[in-house]
Fold these 4 entries.
Entry 1:
Amino acid sequence: MTRMRSRAAEGARIVYHICPNVSPHELTFARAVADGVARTGLRRFVYHSVLHPQIEAMPHHWQKSRVEEMLLAGSFDVTICSRPPICKIY
């Protein structure tokens, strides 16, 4: 499966990841995509987040916050779109 994700990113310069809306698997999906893409040597990861991911009372927002932390701790150049077209480039 990881090889398939790596192959999907071949030839790309960036990846833009949008998880299905209100998914309880946000972190799992993002980690799988990030792992597959990292194997290709791709540098730029654009992540579609939400305006206030730090709100724990909204589990899908809280999961997006966990994904942001994971991406920022990784080796990618990261762009986080909290409400397109508002994006933070790291």
Entry 2:
Amino acid sequence: MHHELKIAPPYFQAVLDGKKTFEIRKNDRGYNAGDTVLLREWDGTENGSYRSRDERYTARTFAATIGYVTGYEQQPGYVVFSLLTDNAEVSGRAA
């Protein structure tokens, strides 16, 4: 299964830098090992004011495969999953 997910700029940059190799998400999509994710950088505000819907996404994306999935020690209904970066793809320009 494929999942497209919003991610805020500081977290997106940490993924790109290799410092953040996991996601904690509400498990409303049934995440499983082997699924693919497309993280789309989402910047919902500019100088404290909301922009139009089309302007909230930046051009940067990160595609990876989900490795391990667990709900251990998470809030009810949430999971942690690892991002396998061996075949990850990055696109878009830096903000």
Entry 3:
Amino acid sequence: MRKTLSDEELRSELVALEGQGHKRLILVWGEHPSYSAEEMARIVHIAYATKSGKGEIRRVNINAAPLDVEGYRTMKAAGIGTYQVFQETYHHPTTGQCIPRARARATTCGA
């Protein structure tokens, strides 16, 4: 199951990661109308601003759907490291056969 963390949950997870010595982070966004470049940049700022003791995130990378040019400028201004674009394509006949089965039995198609 996927979940969008609240700001408080995000800060808590960041503190835990920093406590384990992590310095780099990859944030992953699915496709959703509320996931704008501005919202992603806001989350990136939270990640950079959250510090725990001597720990801090020094590089935030992004994995998300393609943006327009202004969106990429927003991400660059937020100070991200790398923007990794996911581009999904589907073979519709196979997807139609696999998805209901996978959801119902929590298995992968063809297993």
Entry 4:
Amino acid sequence: MLRELAERAVRQVRSVDLVGRLGGEEFVVVMPETSLAGAVVVAERFRVAVAEEPFIPQGQSEKLPVTGQRRHRGDREGPDTIDTLLKRADDALYAASMPVATASSR
């Protein structure tokens, strides 16, 4: 299933972009010379590509729906190093995995 997810990601980016598995179920996409607005468009395209077509795990016949979330933070302080960039991405992924409060749950 991770291979199929990676293939779907690669189909959504340019040939100069790099898609990699960071760990577990986390993927990172390096998009040189891309604005935040451009990256958001690609992230949404990838999210839709994942959600539109259920996955069929190897050796099974039942389709498994998969959903995802995307988050970004635009409130950076100073330039990012690879370590700070990956830390911010990891923090955003953790925040995205937390339940979102709804009006009915308040």
